[in-house]
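Researcher: Sequence recovery benchmark, item below. Answer with residues only.
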């Protein structure tokens, strides 16, 4: 065959359709279709609605009887026998309707037509061809009401269009139907934004932002800057015994992802571990100090001052009774295995640690606050655990209303010689509540002054607002912990239950004055969000952190000795000779340490002081004690995760070697676990 014949075939064009003929053909097809439907269906009111939807069981049986010439009688009898069983299964409690699926819609919204078919038939035909925009139906306990993207229609697994306002509107007059459909397609209102509570150490323009790859929120903050001793010789901060940052970091690495640098608070990583500091034996002098100076592992020519504080721990029999209010988030976002179920297990552990003199109340919040259990003696264990077991997740997060209700029950259960505390358990989402975050902060602060403290336990990921949790705990004179697994619940609520329930000192502040004759520069490692002004140290009206029974607190200062090649700043040309002469009288002192705190129920603070002298220094890291070396390893690891410039020169392998040499006996295995986290981080970074 020649190529010309192929070319002729390719150049052929179909004739343009005749508009009149096309209209006549369409009208004939529609008439034939209507006639066919009328002869096949006994119920003419169903019209086109039955054509494109799966036939119900009763309609199918009806059809079988009409087709008795073609269907054997045995088949009909079998269907009648199966029918009762099917109805019983559909009505049983275990029956679950098919989940909805979104079917993309490409055709425009239909316009009702007149002539040929009724408006109802036209609408049903449009639905069959995916020509009517529909909204995605929300699940029963969703936190938010979100509309699907325009151009999508909702169908279930059987292909049926899901019930929605648009389906019901199809029977309305044309002008009303068009208007209502247009209004429905407008974007649904966004959920109320989460209030940001004022947090010490954060400026007003710092906003908690979601972490990359998830919905967790962390407030950005800058690493502590290097200070020149000649310009700013005094450093002041509030202590921090929270551990939430460490457990969140651990969970992130265990899930194969690097934690958001903003989630890393180095002091919380350091203070997660126990250290064998000397133990005080007098509750009126609740702290023992342990200070050591050693070379820096990440910057040659610099030193690190380790300041260790060990809190007094009374015997269990000496613990004062507690009046606890469990404030439990039962919103829809808590419906996950690592949230509400883990929360229940954690509180069961705590209940088992309480005595008959202790009382428990339970308040929940989800849409509105509700009292689940009024103040009940801890000896009524079955009643308390039963109330916990009945909790379920659903609704939005009315956190502020819940806190107000919890404080009311805390006040109801107050009595002489009893410590009152609200323990808030949440995934960190506060998207409904007081319109002013300042009002919430003021409420918590006022209750703190009245002797009712607030601690926070965080659960789960994807919804965590770390900054809000930190702010609530700080303003409530409590602690913030993140519970990532059952073992962590055991550590916080069993192993350290005394620290969780019994404060030994409040408003604990640290101040260090450095000697410019010995130290050129210094940098506080961590505690960025706990910084205080110099004058705040002696002001008893300024709030600071609290310490629970038996807890230890560790702080690290990186210092640069005078004359070291690592000094970053040039000396001043014009110095104060008289001041220098005064300082030289204290030769041999690197600095002067001060500790201020209030005993429980006291309003005036006590002061402890100690000079940081040269004889507290060791020449090599290997000469430092095990606890000092391990704290250095944790500090290096935390700074590396935060991308702190000072720690960039040390590798994960070097950090691991330092931690391995300082692991010690490690009866609980937490230090060994830390070694595995270093390995995970190294593999993720790819060093």
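Model:
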């Amino acid at each position: 065959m020649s190529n010309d014949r192929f070319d002729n075939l390719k150049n052929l064009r179909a004739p343009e359709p005749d508009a009149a003929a096309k209209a006549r053909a369409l009208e004939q097809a529609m008439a034939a279709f209507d006639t066919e439907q009328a002869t096949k269906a006994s119920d003419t009111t169903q019209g086109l609605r039955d054509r494109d939807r799966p036939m119900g069981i009763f309609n199918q049986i009806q059809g079988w009887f009409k087709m008795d010439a073609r269907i054997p009688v045995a088949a009909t009898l079998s269907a009648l026998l199966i029918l009762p069983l099917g109805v019983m299964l559909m009505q049983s409690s275990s029956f679950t309707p098919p989940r909805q699926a979104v079917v993309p819609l490409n055709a425009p919204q239909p316009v009702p037509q007149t002539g040929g078919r009724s408006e109802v038939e036209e609408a049903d035909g449009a639905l069959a061809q995916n020509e009517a925009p529909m909204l995605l139906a929300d699940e029963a306990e969703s936190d938010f009401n979100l509309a699907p993207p325009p151009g999508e229609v909702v169908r279930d697994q059987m292909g049926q269009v899901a019930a929605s306002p648009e389906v019901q509107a199809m029977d309305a007059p044309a002008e009303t139907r068009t208007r209502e459909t247009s209004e429905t397609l407008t974007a649904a209102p966004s959920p109320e934004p989460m209030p940001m509570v004022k947090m010490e150490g954060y400026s007003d323009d710092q906003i908690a932002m979601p972490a990359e790859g998830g919905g967790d929120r962390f407030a950005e903050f800058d690493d502590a800057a290097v200070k020149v001793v000649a310009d700013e010789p005094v450093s002041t901060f509030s202590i921090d015994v929270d551990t939430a940052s460490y457990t969140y970091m651990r969970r992130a690495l265990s899930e194969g992802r690097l934690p958001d640098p903003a989630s890393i608070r180095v002091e919380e990583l350091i203070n997660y571990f126990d250290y064998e500091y000397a133990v005080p034996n007098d509750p009126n002098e609740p702290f023992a100090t342990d200070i050591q100076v050693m070379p820096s592992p990440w910057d040659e020519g610099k030193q690190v001052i380790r300041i260790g504080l060990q809190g007094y721990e009374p015997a269990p029999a000496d613990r004062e009774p507690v009046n606890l209010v469990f404030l439990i988030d039962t919103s829809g976002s808590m419906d996950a295995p690592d949230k509400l179920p883990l929360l229940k297990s954690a509180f069961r552990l705590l209940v088992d640690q309480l005595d008959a003199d202790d009382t428990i109340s339970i308040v929940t919040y989800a849409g509105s606050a509700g009292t689940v259990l009024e103040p009940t003696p801890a000896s009524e264990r079955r009643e308390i655990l039963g109330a916990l077991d009945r909790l379920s997740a659903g609704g939005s997060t009315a956190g502020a209303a819940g806190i107000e209700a919890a404080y009311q029950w805390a006040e109801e259960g107050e009595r002489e010689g009893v410590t009152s505390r609200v323990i808030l358990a949440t995934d960190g989402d506060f998207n409904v509540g007081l319109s002013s975050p300042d009002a919430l902060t003021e409420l918590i602060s006022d209750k703190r002054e009245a002797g009712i403290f607030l601690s926070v336990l965080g659960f789960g990921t994807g919804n965590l607002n770390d900054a809000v949790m930190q702010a609530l705990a700080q303003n409530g004179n409590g602690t913030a912990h993140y519970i990532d697994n059952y073992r962590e619940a055991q550590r916080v609520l069993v192993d350290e239950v005394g620290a969780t329930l019994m404060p030994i000192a409040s408003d604990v502040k640290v101040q260090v004055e450095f000697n410019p004759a010995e130290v050129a520069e210094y940098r506080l490692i961590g505690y960025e969000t706990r910084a205080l002004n110099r004058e705040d140290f002696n002001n008893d009206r300024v709030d600071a952190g609290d310490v629970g029974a038996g807890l230890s607190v560790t702080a690290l200062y990186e210092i640069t000795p005078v004359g070291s090649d690592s000094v970053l700043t040039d000396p001043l040309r014009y110095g104060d000779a008289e001041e220098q002469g005064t300082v030289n009288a204290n030769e041999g002192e690197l600095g002067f340490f001060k500790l201020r705190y209030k005993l429980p129920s006291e309003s005036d603070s006590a002061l402890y002081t100690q000079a940081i002298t040269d004889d507290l220094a060791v020449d090599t890291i290997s000469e430092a004690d095990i606890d000092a070396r391990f704290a250095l390893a944790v500090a290096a690891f935390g700074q590396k995760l935060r991308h702190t410039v000072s720690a960039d020169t040390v590798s994960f392998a070097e950090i691991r070697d330092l931690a391995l040499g300082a692991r010690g006996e490690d009866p609980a295995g937490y230090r060994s676990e830390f070694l595995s986290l270093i390995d995970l981080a190294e593999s993720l970074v790819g060093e």
